Fold these 4 entries.
Entry 1:
Amino acid sequence: MADQYLLGWIFATVLGAVFLCRALARRNGERGRALVEEERSECVKSVMVSNGECRSTDGDVDVIIVGAGVAGAALAHTLGKDGRRVHVIERDLTEPDRIVGELLQPGGYLKLIELGLEDCVEQIDAQRVFGYALFKDGKNTKLSYPLEKFHSDVSGRSFHNGRFIQRMREKAATLPNVLLEQGTVTSLLEEKGTIKGVQYKTKTGEEMTAYAPLTIVCDGCFSNLRRSLCDPKVDVPSCFVGLILENCNLPHANHGHVILADPSPILFYQISSMEVRCLVDVPGQKVPSISNGEMAKYLKTVVAPQIPPQIYDSFIAAVDKGSIRTMPNRSMPAAPYPTPGALLMGDAFNMRHPLTGGGMTVALSDIVVLRNLLRPLGNLNDPSTLSKYLESFYTLRKPVASTINTLAGALYKVFSSSPDQARKEMRQACFDYLSLGGVFSMGPVSLLSGLNPRPLSLVLHFFAVAVYGVGRLLLPFPSPKRAWIGARLISSASGIIFPIIKAEGVRQMFFPATVPAYYRAPVLSEKQMKKTVDGVN
């Protein structure tokens, strides 16, 4: 416990240093811009610009993308639209059938708009999502996304994951400079520490090789290529059991439903006009057997009594139908090895618990960051210089990615039941805090939705919940027992969030401006861009 209090003191000191760091960053702005120009002078070579498109001067392919899931398909269209010659190799180009990746937060939808892919949620019976409904012990509270300042079309979207991916694949394939090929990549081709391309098997089993200055690996959570590009520390805290409820009317239309059940949360959200997805979280890596009927028994006897009565009959009917699927929930901090000629993205690179539905938002945000970094570069054929330049990607993505990752991990632990009294108090405090409405719910929901991905705001709200929980214990009349539980509550909160922050990287998360790679971001003014174009012409 002494360690947790020491962590709390250290973190308070860190928060105070944030403001000093920002002041220093502003003071050093001119130096930072000078570093940008220095790095750009090394990287931006042989730029050719035509109708706003950036093209390499030699080679048949600019970028190989391994995998055409959400990240790979969106990235292929984005780079192809910018004029890159893209070769996508996907193991299976038929429509995927998954039980996750079905809810896109409003922040992710804004990134979809930024990438010109917003029409990919059309014609797939996608449902609009305006917030969440939280249920606990027979009580419920509705938490709406803060969308007042946005266009009326902006909201979350829920859909069949496979339909969404197929729409993005189809859109990428319409570009003449994007090739989608079905094949299985077996290895990366390395020469003197530089990735030159990939070796793969075609649909017919023929061994092939493909070469490009940059290979981007987006082959998902089961990636067999990431070990050479990162230090994968994969944790599996739980598994999802997936069902589809038909002709089910949720208590709160166009809202995701989260039931704070025992032992862990249950999710409901609509994925089409006639279907509701149910995800039952089961802690640990083992789930009851589906084949011998243990799973159906578990769902009927343990889960069903805890869900809202309006959903009960549809839930039992879905269990009886027997279409039950499971999937392990993985989390993995981003720990890349900067490798010339290669880059990791998507779930192959970074995963978080899917409770908060933030995975696609992180992936799309990463694509925006990478697109902006690559746009000024015409020639990608200097891998070592390019790799050094793209180290800024790992820093620039951190505020958004780390906020969503940390929130997912922390909320899962808070929302899961525990025999520890302090954890029980934290769980109840979280529900009551969000039920207060106003700034108390708007702040956390804006973080959850990806509309305000600020790490400092996340930490402040998290500890505000803990302090609120202590206040509930001490009022109206404190006692030694309640004070002790309150102290343990603060210690428990520290024990939840600090390890996640440490894994994400304190410096990159809270002090990105102190990382040298931060200043390699290519922020070109109109004058500089015109000068570059005129120089080429």
Entry 2:
Amino acid sequence: MSKWNLLALTLGLLLVAAPFTKHQFAYATDAEYEDDEDDDDAPAAPKDDDVDVVVVTSKNWDETVKKSKFALVEFYAPWCGHCKSLKPEYAKAATVLKSAVPDAVIAKVDATQEESLGQKFGVQGYPTLKWFVDGELASDYNGPRDADGIVGWVKKKTGPPAVTVDDAEKLKALEAEAEVVVVGYFKALEGEVYNTFKSYAAKTEDVQFAQTTSADVAKAAGLDAHDTVAVVKNFAGEDRTTAVLATDIDTDSLTAFVKAEKMPPTIEFSQKNSDKIFNSGINKQMILWTTADDLKADAEVMKVYREASKKFKGQLVFVTVNNEGDGADPVTNFFGLKGATSPVLLGFFMEKNKKFRMEGDFTADNVAKFAESVVEGTAQAVLKSEAVPEDPYEDGVYKIVGKTVESVVLDENKDVLLEVYAPWCGHCKKLEPIYKKLAKRFKKVESVIIAKMDGTENEHPEIEVKGFPTILFYPAGSDRTPIVFEGGDRSLKALTKFIKTNAKIPYELPKKGSETDEGTSEDKDKPASDKDEL
């Protein structure tokens, strides 16, 4: 899935997001909030709609991708819900790009049939998109999932880093196509300062850049001196504004300036905006969960929120969620807000999947203090936990909840294997019978605990999860740093070997064929899955 893969994983996601968004961990939108394997209802384009998407196999790879100047290749699975959702947008983008960027091939690979290609390019989940230049892998695609976004991304990759604008009308036309335009004004399109601007523009994919030597264009962008940069903003529902970089141009100043200015004061949580929210380069968010009336521009709650956004520009993304709307469920579920009284102000740190909640009244002072605590890392994280079960064992597997991580998983006297799963996850369901057999095999090994935890209902600051299932081994001893089980082979044999390799306390397994050794040779060699749900 995606950094959409992010607001999401714990919710049943994630945003993605993923192979799309570095897909990190987030509260997601409903499209991410589903089981890839079982989703037959995701929208799919009619076959004729994707005639401009080239079908690539190992047999024609050299004739298509290898010989192309540029190629965007989607590795997909036919059963994948996220792939089905992407299909019509990818098809539209392919049709537009066929004429707009004729040097670019828009292609797809059924990675369930072309396993060798998936393995060659490190495909770990679906859909995964890769960008190729002159037949060689150049980068992963972490851009938008809508047609316009894909087209814009490819144009940026294949065109000049910045568009040369020689009159104010051309700048106006550029603004009509992009809500944010970064304008550089130079005496000549050469020299050290210009090269710094050009280099930064080439590496920045989510913003349109323009360069000019025209005083009229510079004036329209709010600039009056050479070697200066402005950001021109035309956000929906907002007046046109410009911001000028107040310091000398260098990579650090450009990065900080553009990151701070490219986001609107507040942004609505939606599928359309997910890429902007989760791939903004700002890894912490404020989330205002409240009623539609509170979100009106003249409402006191919204005035307070917008004022705070000005103080923390570039440090926090200020997200709004209409809790009366259809799209609020991912946030409501992820943060446990069912029945909560509006307004609720939340904080979210994506990299650590940490959630925060403001206490007290929704005042300007409280909001500012809470935002500052999230930025500085002093806010107290809110962690979910199910009730501690009376009998924690289920078919020999120890059920962990958030409240028992310290006493069981982090017990220095035990070697603990922990599977963090999601009830909706198809890969977790495939693993379940193998995991039960693993628990049966280790039933009489007192030093080893085979455990599982529902990652959608339980959290702990020492447990980081970036996909389901995540399998972690905590060796006995004072250093409880977990060892991540990696690789697609989740067979009984592979898991047994993983424990044997990393356990600190010596043990002997029952002999094969005994009543506590349930594995057959077939079980041992059969992987539970070869791809994670990201």
Entry 3:
Amino acid sequence: MAAKVSSSLSKSTPFSLTPSQTPLSFSPKPHPKPFSSSSSPPKTTSLSYTHKPLFTASAKTPISDFFAEDKKNPDSSFDEYFFDDDEKPREECGVVGIYGDSEASRLCYLALHALQHRGQEGAGIVAVKNDVLQSVTGVGLVSEVFSHSKLDQLPGDLAIGHVRYSTAGSSMLKNVQPFVAGYRFGSVGVAHNGNLVNYSSLRAKLEDNGSIFNTSSDTEVVLHLIAISKHRPFILRIVDACEQLEGAYSMVFVTNDKLVAVRDPHGFRPLVMGRRSNGAVVFASETCALDLIEATYEREVYPGEVVVVDKDGVQSLCLMSHPEPKQCIFEHIYFALPNSVVFGRSVYESRRAFGEILATEAPVDCDVVIAVPDSGVVAALGYAAKAGVAFQQGLIRSHYVGRTFIEPSQKIRDFGVKLKLSPVRAVLEGKRVVVVDDSIVRGTTSSKIVRLLKEAGAKEVHMRIASPPIIGSCYYGVDTPSSEELISNRMSVEEIREFIGSDSLAFLPFDSLTNMLQKEAPKFCYACFSGKYPVEPREIKVKRVGDFVDDGLNGSLGSIDGGWVQANVNPKDDEIKQDSVVKV
């Protein structure tokens, strides 16, 4: 009997198709190793790796015990206002897949909690039981979308999950993944992290041939390409589809009997593989998700690799010939959690090293080192240790500010920033302060933070940024402003310093960043720092989410209106800014 598609949604039902034919039985045989022995071990071998899980791989308490009984699921719809005071680039997605555990959906739920920082606006899980793909998706945080009763609707030992940072207002729910669809040989669910730079041309071609789209997500293109493939085995349909994709994609697929993980040939976005003590195989965007569900890290899914998990075990296929990896450097600067290991490197150690480099190359006489929490903390610790100056909490972050707020009728200056960041006068008053942040995007939030610190009594404020200046927009799965809006693309470092009002300003020098990475440096993507793209963006892309927001002020979701902007089709051959330090 073909796998059925069943969906239970928090707010509404997305497209679903019920197949009418028996799916083709396909049990892949072991394939020749698609990678050299130096880069890819056999399927029975784990990479040498020092990362340790947070817990041992045995638990006396079932996962079910972590969920309270009969608690009502709070309304997870978006409110009238949108709140964004961080003006940081936003990672758009996190994915997880689990095969071979009777509580797969609950483990997915916990893993998505660990990946919540990668997307806060929507979440979903698809589980498989008796050849039925059951789906629950909704708008909001993972804890808002799922309840004990919702997870009871997702039985089975095979599941995938997704968290999403949304890019539109009213169309948000139907774009929440995983997507589930049926085609003539079965049913398939997919969760995608990344962005396809040839999405528009692929969609236009498919529509010309009669395809009907239900969402504005590039992920739906992948489902259509799988459905029209001439290959019969599902795995070869995935390979056929992916060979037509350009850009960044780390995806997990689920059918009635298989879990499949795929990573694009450049390896832009992370995807790791682990295993629980009961043998269950886990895929996730970051190792922090493996830690929470007591899965031991085994290896990355390699760039250009397709990993298939079914009753016959784990099989690996080479998606296509792949160039040198171009992994996103911003995973180490901002996106990933410090306790994760991404692209084989500890995120914590990378950020601490960034701070140490800043202390060495941009020293300044100071009394205290503070961070812009939370993303600047580890770099600030590295700066303080290298400089021999005490690190203190000069800014306290409120973790209880939701997406909405009510401002008093009399305007409060820098209201959005003050809601989330509170200065500690006892730490700052009369002091020469170094404040470390991970990046500057538009610069407006940085100017408000500097003003906040000086109003709290800081004698001097010296800003240190643990990344090079950002001059290019990202087209590989990160929501960033257009290049024209990036302050480092419009101003010199001295002009930025004057704009934000700090006493000095220093960015992490690009050469020092690559020197720290040593032989791994060529494997990273630096397009946001150089404007040079490994895969040229040739089409338009939604980019203006949050642009109507002045770093914490509110605005109507309806005013977003898509925000389509033209890609930088002929990026100028910009020199990476080396004037990274300005002192006065």
Entry 4:
Amino acid sequence: MTEDLEEGNLIFKAEAFLSYVVLSSWRDSIVVLKSCEKLSPWAENLQIVRRCSESIAWKACANPKGIRWSYTGRTAKISSPKWNDMKDSSPSRNQQVPPDWWFEDASILRIDHFVRVITAIKVKGMRFELVGASIMHYATKWLPGLISDTAIPGDEASNCSMSNSSSSGGSSWKGGLHMVVTGTKDDTSSLQAKEQRMIIESLVSIIPPQKDSVSCSFLLRLLRMAIMLKVAPALVTELEKRVGMQFEQATLADLLIPSYNKGETMYDVDLVQRLLEHFIIQEHTESSSPSRQSFSDKQHMGMGCILNAKARVARLVDSYLTEVSRDRNLSLTKFQVLAEALPESARTCDDGLYRAIDSYLKAHPTLSEHERKRLCRVMDCQKLSIDACLHAAQNERLPLRVVVQVLFAEQVKISNALASSSVKDVESESHAMVTNRKTLLEGTPQSFQEGWTAAKKDINTLKFELESVKAKYMELQNDMASLQKQFDKMLKQKHTSAWSSGWKKLSKLGRTTHLVENQDDSPEIQDSLEQNRKTTRRWRNSIS
């Protein structure tokens, strides 16, 4: 077989066939690499897997304008021509080749060979968006649980998983010889779960580090499967960080991940809390990076994007809180911590947060007054819209103190608006509002006009009630002031009465001394004094 005896033996011919025939053809490279799954140790030792992977990577990174064939993943009836075959009679000559033409062909490979191909493609310098798209395509094909809610949905998942494990069927691969696995249905499902866990761990390790290489929805669905299949905690944490990098792109449906760890709540609220923490850390890092602070224009643009991202995340969190608040097992502390995780500047309007609070109060009617006040502290009454204020003023589930705060905040808004605008501005705005209202009323149907008049009457009645409450509040303040004055007067009278009794005693002593001094002028007074002295002496003697 070697060249020791004669030139052109089997090894030379096999090497020439591999180099000039197999590696020069896209389809043959895919087929040979797929065939190496049955010969894992020998194919690795002979460098066939490495050479096929590099050949596929080089062809995938080449200019797609030179590609003139039907793709192998779409089951062409005839074998595809070689890589450099560009005949004029090709039916796809005038068709533009999409950049993802190689996704389907690469997705038929086993996970370890796919990882080798993607690693070689990344080394060649392909755009990270295409690399991420190919990973998403592969995961969608081999992980049916990404689309459905179950990770192993029956026969289809079984076929996909078993074909990925080995093309010979029912065999496991670990880089060595294959062993046929036979057993019960439970053993098969556990084997499928193990293989899917391996696929998830491999895909997470090759996702490009760039922010938008894969979608946030894909990352969340992959995270759900990783938690359900009990993937390694380090990879789960890595996925959580990746989701936090682009958390503003998430949707409510993707965030509603069930609690697989047999927790008290229906949904995994702690997971969303961790994702939100990763997002806040990422935004803080981006805002404080020196690259943003070096150029003022870029810094302003970056800050605007950060504020927009925080606003989108705030709306997403409010919607999530509204959804999970219906769970009776959700504790008040978890709700409050998740609601207060974002800074106050993230929310310009607290209507969504008020909706979540109202939903939580509906689902938890046994809350005490203190707990309801504690729940409402997460909401800023000054950030509520007019519709939310009207609803909150009539909401019996809210504490009375919160209702008063809502009414007071609305009154402050009205007074500030009136104080900031001058008389001319008010007249011009009122004139413009009247003209706009006339045009709107002319163009709207009768039902809308009747609804508008009814709403206007309600607003006027609420304003009248607000004025009456304000007048009663002023009356109560006046009564309080009058009561305070009366109370102060009573205190003064008590102090003056004690002092006046003391002064009366002192005045009596003063009068007696004055009489003693004038005893020469009045002998009668002297006699009376002598009698008083005698009586006092007798009284003293009797006591002694």
